[in-house]
Design goal:
The protein is 31% helix and 17% strand. It has 273 residues and is an alpha/beta fold. The structure holds 6-chloroguanine.
Length: 273
């Protein structure tokens, strides 16, 4: 996979040399190119922003530098044999970045990121490139960052670990929270390693019982417990038909019951946590 990032803070992308993404680069699984947007400015002050039409606070990133940057990034990539580019525009007003979108992006051969500072990029830049390639405007959560660079790091890490051969163990995705499959929509429960007792805290006995069925059941119950506590919205989205008898029992103990006639679960009032 080829990744291009155009930014006014190339040094912000240094973490792409570290850990999983850094190793994927070193192994040639990821071909990363970080570009300084200011190289496509032509004035003495390397200006990339200007005041917004219609007034209001803050500044807007200008069309000119982005247009030249993206034209050249596309031309260089195509020359190097890349194909099928997708433009990924990090913005708090984008669609939510989810595991599903990470999977979709991991299946593309070439991602071009345009992290913005200030109030964002002149709309016409996205409109122009949308005529040439898919454009994904993406938000990584319901909070506002000072710029999109940290979001590029987040998205890149989520995507890179899904590329074939990047994670050591191909099984490692299977139980991810948010992975499709049996545990879909459940968060992962707690994990433990040696020693069996630490500062008076013992590990749950079931984990050393050698009984794989009981261990799987315990893990699933813990996943329900954690999901109910941290992400009740995920429980509400579940189809009760997807649950077995013990799942229903566990949920009922946690204070959840099927909506009469509906497909959603709802919290029952008056049940203790
Ligand atoms: Cl992608 N960018 C910025 N600036 N803020 C955000 C975001 C992105 N996602 C959530 N907040």
């Amino acid at each position: 996979m080829r990744l291009d990032v155009v930014t006014i803070f190339p040094e912000y992308l240094e973490p792409l040399n570290v850990s999983l993404v850094g190793k994927a680069r070193a192994r040639g699984q990821l071909d990363v190119h970080v570009h300084d947007l200011r190289q496509w400015t032509h004035d003495r002050h390397n200006t990339v922003d200007d005041t917004p039409y219609g007034g209001g606070p803050g500044m807007v990133m200008k069309t000119g530098p982005w247009g030249e940057a993206l034209d050249q990034t596309l031309a260089d990539g195509y020359d190097a044999g890349a194909h099928g580019p997708v433009l990924v525009v990090p913005t708090p007003s984008g669609r939510p970045f989810t595991q599903e979108l990470a999977v979709e992006l991991s299946e593309r051969p070439w991602l071009i990121f345009t992290p913005a500072r200030y109030e964002g990029i002149d709309r016409r830049v996205m409109d122009e490139y949308a005529t040439r390639m898919p454009v994904y405007e993406v938000s990584i959560g319901d909070y506002v960052l000072a710029g999109g660079e940290a979001a590029v790091l987040v998205i890149t890490e989520a995507v890179a670990r899904l590329l074939p051969g990047v994670l050591g163990n191909a099984e490692s995705h299977r139980d991810d929270s948010f992975a499709p499959g049996a545990m879909a929509n459940l968060l992962e429960g707690p994990v433990y390693t040696k020693p069996p007792e630490w500062r008076g805290h013992a590990i749950p006995d079931v984990l050393v019982s050698g009984h794989h069925g009981k261990i799987a059941r315990w893990r699933r119950d813990e996943a329900f417990r954690r999901t109910a506590a941290h992400r009740p919205d995920l429980i509400e989205r579940c189809d009760p038909a997807a649950f077995d008898k013990k799942d229903r029992e566990t949920l009922s103990i946690l204070g959840w019951a099927p909506e009469p006639g509906g497909r959603f679960w709802r919290r029952v009032e008056g049940v203790e946590e």
